[in-house]
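User: Continuing from earlier, I have the next pair ready.

Assistant: Great, send them over.

User: Here they are, in order.

Assistant: Folding the first of the pair now:
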Amino acid sequence: MNTRLVETATPTILKLLEAAQRLMLGKGFPATTVEEICAAAGVTKGSFFHYFAGKEEIGAAVLDHFVTGRMQAVRGAPCSCWRDPLKRVYGYVDFMIKLSREPSAQLSCLLGNFAQELSDTHPKLRAQCGRHFDQWAQMLKRDLDAAKARYAPKTAFDTQSLAEHFIAVLEGALILVKAKQDRKILERQLRHYKSYLQSLFAVDSRGKCR
């Protein structure tokens, strides 16, 4: 199932995707069974196999569903409409910090989880994770490119690596959050990343772009 089909899914497919996402975020892909997904969704196994060939196929669809939901949340954030590209970058980091503070937020990333759990055993899902990470980095890189052209045209840094650095910081922080059961770790690490950005883009002491 591709992203387009996920976006136009029927109510039954959406029930299956939401149930599978909750289970896979909570206990991982390997430990989640088709039977559990069907029970959680209130859907028969016959209906499940009408739409999906098996667990790997729904796993691929759930991954697209998860990423689509996250991208919609980002596009709905106020910072996405700001004209200044550097402010959009800072606003994105701040938006992720704000999300991390919400008590109801589940500080887990299905994309990162799948990459860790399945890279050695499910090559198709591994490749799918790689594509989504690339798309995420490209989204950040577009604003970083525009910000660099405007505020730091002569400074030597690679915007692709800087975009990937954000992903590495966030995903690594989520691992620490799980290990230490301390959700404040995510905010601290994102603030470190923002401070690093500010040093690259020569932000003054008032936090305004020069």
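And the other member of the pair:
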Amino acid sequence: MAGAEHDLKYMRRAVRLAENARGRAEPNPMVGAIIVSEGRVVGEGWTRPFGGAHAEVVALQEAGGAARGATMYVTLEPCAHQGKTPPCAPQLVRAGLARVVVAVLDPTPKTRGKGLSLLRQAGIRTETGLCRDEAVRQNAAFFKAAATGKPLLIVKWAMTADGKIATRTGDSRWISGAESRRLAHRLRGMVDCIMVGAGTALKDDPRLTCRDAEKRRTAARLVLCGSRVPPAESRLFATLQEAPLMLAHAEDRQPKGLEVAVESGAEALPVRLCAATPDRLDPGALLEELGRRGMSNVLLEGGAETLGGFFDAGQVDRALAFIAPTVVGGRDAVTAVVGRGVARVDEAPRLLDPQVRRLGSDVLLQGWVRDPLGWLP
């Protein structure tokens, strides 16, 4: 196998390894590392849950003395700063690696370029850029946080083939099939926060909890409140022992029932109003606050007006549409995304790298609304 093909094979394997850390490592990045000596893998690892060992250290521990003179393939620049664990780059030097191939530089000022510089000073050959795009998109939340301070915003909805999320009477259970709902719960188990608008919370009385046996995180629930908050007897409050509940509201006014809700265990989250739409919370300000709280991935599940507001504000990063092979019709039936919308088709955001997947009788269409490569320093 030629050298370039050899390198590509192992870096792609490192990217796949990093996926094991999704939903577990955040707010740290997901990283995969492989150590190869004389054409044989002698060590590999991925980032352990937050506060645990980094991928490079796990791979070095597995390789032991076989790491000396070997090549490491790692999806993100080894860190050179003290965090919850010691810096990785000095450990690579002590292990006696001869070469380190890195997919992409760390975007944070405390490490960017410093890890590679330390390796080069020790005489280790370094190369960067192999599988860069894949590594950035895989760690989109980490790169966005470094560039903007905001978490990655994922939106999802389930709709019929004619774009409706409910019938003219408001009935919506169940538009999507069992496989789609299972995947949606798996996604809930990998994010820090699940958001809905007040209308959805009042109408559907959801729990917004993850009912997936393999959930990796417990997401906070967040309701964007207008003039009212969910009642204390709702399922959101009945499940407070399972996950925290936040109620976002305009910072200059309190919605009806907020004090009772706080006494019942919810947290009030004041947010400034949107300048373009003064009766709505500012989506960007809300995400900034969630970023300050250390949240990496936020899932917005509706309703239509709330989804439209975040699209209008240009705050959506990734979209997932679960499409059922059903046609309900009805001029008064609710469409998936409302808001202000665009005036011309050529102004509409188009999904980048769209992917289509069959889920039972449903189809999942997903893609990037904003390309994570734009967050590279």
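Worth noting for the second one:
The mean pLDDT is 93. Residues 3-18 form the longest helix (16 residues).
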